[in-house]
Amino acid sequence: MNSSFIQINEISKHFGSVRAVDNVSFQIHEGEFFSLLGPSGCGKTTLLRLLAGFEYPTTGNLLLDGIDITSLPPDKRPTNMVFQNYAIFPHINVEKNIQFGLRKLGLSKEQIEKRVKDVLSLVKLEGYEERFSSQLSGGQRQRVALARALVRQPKVLLLDEPLGALDKKLRDEMQLELRSLQKEIGITFVFVTHDQQEAISMSDRVAVMSEGKIQQLSAPNELYKNPQNIFVSDFIGETNFLKASTKTQDGEYINVSIENLGEFKIKNNLNISENSFDAVCSIRPEAMKIDTVKSDWDICLEGKIRQTSYLGEMTKFYVETKELEKIITVSSQHFDNQSFKNNDCFISISLEDISLLDKK
Amino acid sequence: MEQKNNTLLIYTLLYFAFLYVPVLFLPLFSFNDGNYMSFPLTGFTTEHYEEMWSKSNLHNALWASIKVGVVASTVSTTIALFAAKAFARYKFRGQNISYGAIMMPFLIPEIILAVSLLIIWLALGFKLGLVPVTLGHILFCTPFAMLILIARIEGFDFSLEEASRDLGENAWGTFFRVSLPLYLPGIIASLLLSFIISFDEFVLAFFLTGSDATLPMYMWAQMRFVQKLPHVLALGAVIIVFTTLIVLLAFWLRNLGQGKKKAEFGINIHE
After folding, report:
1. In CATH terms, is domain B63-258 a member of 1.10.3720.10?
2. CB contact set of B209 (below 8 Å; sequence gap of 6+)
3. What is the mean pLDDT of residues A65-74?
4. Which residues of chain A lie closer than 8 angstroms to B182, CB-CB?
């Protein structure tokens, strides 16, 4: 496996005064499912279009499998794309759509037929050869777009929010299918999405982007457990932020004073400096315990439930406490809104579940 | 309510009568065997139509108009296609000004256009004839062609062109395999309408033809002789029929793509 299969070196893309992509460098491994995740306008789509060749970088260069592709036009790159709206050619049928990109590959008629047949069975679209785009459902169109790109056997498949237009159930199905398809054919996938759940559940690695920069690049579980900054912590899943300031370092721990709760020793994974007022503590809703009675956990707060939302597999509680400025969110699989008398509750926090982050 | 509907109906009928009755007199009198356009009709004949076959001047004028029309519609549609694509696809500096400049011949009175072309053409030392007429018609037809093509291209999904580039086609391949087939109904509609506009254009032709008459020029010349009037009526009737057919065809083609789009959304709802 080539771990620097795609090299993105100091890439910037400016549109007028807007820095859509701002001096980004990272590498994508061969055969991995890589996601670019971020809110709209974060530069993820621009980065994908730079890889496809629809845009050229303002500065920096791109290497694919050791070859500089920075200034190659899209038709000369060994990449293929699945477009957000699928972009199925409406004037030709499914079979011709899939054959479209084979014309210049110098294949024999038999080879073309075989490739089309194989890819149709791969995406489970046998029997749809004669259909036109207007006669297909959203999910089927997506399969055509996938087949049309894969039939060229690209080194990299680029996917621009391909599941965005599908309804939830179909989207969940396609997530699993895309993932197993990628494992089956072993092609490197670069997947753009704004849906954190989608990125986390499908990818080998995820690059979280905001304002044209990579905020964090790591495996999905790392993103969730060890966010590198406030943006990532906030964007991936749900979390509670508590104001904090650091005191003195003590081994790998640092003394932290958390708003009105007192001073605690917390692991300083991100090397936040001593005596900083720019620290923030992040605690996931499911990491806290909500109960009718007090506990002996590191922190235990008395609170009043202001609102609940029942989500089936769990219930979310929005709890007000005397000590904390903001209402905090706690989720529980054991309790529901019937469990608490007068909405009185106790919230318990273990220090290991607190991640210390830098505000900047 | 009933009353109101009747008023509207009468208004509508009067409007259409005003629009089309005069035009319908042409075919009516073209089958009348008298020399004058007056009632009562004196008898049925097809001799005016037969007469057209023997007029070599008419044939020359028809041929001149077809030549001018074909060249003018082809050139103006080509120019308009590239311009319409640029306007619909890209944002660029001076976009509004250049759009206005191309549309200007719409607003300039035709006679002023004709006079200024005449002056420049002669000042450059060229001879009058079908060439300056064709150039004038290109100028005149381009805004019409632009309007038709912009309407067609504006709804176009440009990611289809990107998809084609992505699938290994260069810019030319993309144009011929994707863009052109999808623009085609608009292009044909533009060709047909430009041809019609050129075919019955009179003012520019009047100033710029010299001795090579186009069909409208020929008809105008014939009108001065009473005995020649009937076959001009016959000619007029034929032109009306052909023009109507071409315009209907052009509109049908223009709407072809739009209808498809609706069907696409319609089918989307299932599943």
Report:
1. yes
2. B128, B129, B130, B133, B217
3. 93
4. 90-91
Domain boundaries, chain A: 6-233, 238-358
| Contact criterion met (CB < 8 Å) for A75 and B165 | yes
pLDDT in tens, B171-209: 999 999 999 888 888 898 899 989 999 988 888 888 888
Judged by CB atoms within 8 Å, which residues 4-63 of B form the interface with A? Answer: none
Tens of pLDDT, residue by residue over A311-333, are: 888 899 999 998 888 899 999 88
CATH top-level class for A6-233? alpha beta
pLDDT tens for each residue of B239-266 = 888 888 888 887 787 666 554 443 333 3
pLDDT mean over A33-44: 94
Q: How far apart are the first and last CA of chain B?
A: 44
Whose tokens are 């504006």? That residue is B154
Strand partners, A59: A12
Put simply, the answer to whether B267 touches A74 (Cβ < 8 Å) is no
In A, what residues contact B, Cβ < 8 A? 52-54, 73-75, 79-81, 83-85, 87, 89-91, 100-101, 103-105, 133-135, 137-139, 148-149, 152
Q: Tell me if A74 and B264 make a contact (CB, 8 A cut-off).
A: no
Per CATH, the architecture of A238-358 is what?
Beta Barrel (2.40)
**Nearest residue of B to residue A90 by CA position?**
B182
User: What is the pLDDT at residue B37?
Assistant: 67
Q: What percent of chain A has pLDDT over 90?
A: 62
Q: Which residue of B has its CA nearest to A157?
A: B166
Give the CA dihedral B53, B58, B59, B61, nearest 10 degrees.
Answer: -160
Pairing of strands A253-258, A188-193: unpaired
- The 10 Å Cβ neighbour count of residue A273 is 12
In terms of pLDDT, which residue wins out, B106 or B137?
B137
Phi-psi region of A319 (alpha: psi -120 to 50; beta: other; left: phi over 0): beta
- Does the CB of B168 have a partner CB in chain A at under 8 Å? yes
pLDDT of the residue at B23: 82
- The average pLDDT across B39-52 equals 75
Give the residue from A210, A208, A213 showing the smallest Cα distance to A226: A208
Q: Nearest Cβ partner of B169 from A75, A80, A90?
A: A75
* A247/B187 Cα distance (integer angstroms): 74
Q: What is the pLDDT of residue A275?
A: 87
A89–B160: do the CB atoms touch at under 8 Å?
yes
- Distance in Å, alpha carbon of B268 to nearest chain A alpha carbon: 6
Q: Using an 8 Å CB-CB cutoff, list chain B residues near A148.
A: 163, 167
**Residue of chain B nearest A85, judged by CA positions:** B159
Give me the pLDDT at residue B36, please. 67
